[in-house]
Specification:
Length: 123
């Protein structure tokens, strides 16, 4: 596996740990529907949290969360809708982004952006 894939997997693992420490119940990881993949689906306070994890080795070109494009949002929303139907979930859904970036000492920092986008942002 390529180094960037290892970094992405590590970032997702860190995001899961972060969410669990903050009271989120992880429902599923890497949920796939057609061309879409949701990194983490969690639940907290009876709300379904759809979390996109974005990791970068540097923010020199763009912040990790800036890599979530309209096309990516459409795919995530489509997959989220499918998840809700498939598992018969009738709950509020929130779309978050978890950004992972190393600091100058190479420690990985997590930024959790709640309500990063809405389903209608996909239009």
């Amino acid at each position: 596996m390529a180094t960037h894939n290892d970094f992405g997997k590590k970032a997702e693992d860190l995001a899961v740990e972060y969410l669990q420490k903050n009271g989120y119940k992880i429902l599923v990881r890497n949920f796939r529907f057609q061309k879409a993949e949701i990194d983490i689906i969690a639940e907290k306070d009876n709300v379904i949290i759809v979390a996109e994890v974005k990791a970068r080795s540097t923010d020199a070109f763009m912040l990790p969360q800036e890599a979530v494009t309209k096309t990516k949002i459409k795919l995530i929303v489509s997959a989220a809708n499918h998840y809700l139907e498939e598992f018969n979930r009738d709950q509020e859904v929130r779309f978050d982004i978890i950004s992972v970036l190393p600091d100058e000492k190479r420690n990985l920092n997590i930024e959790h952006i709640e309500n990063a986008f809405e389903a209608f942002d996909a239009n």
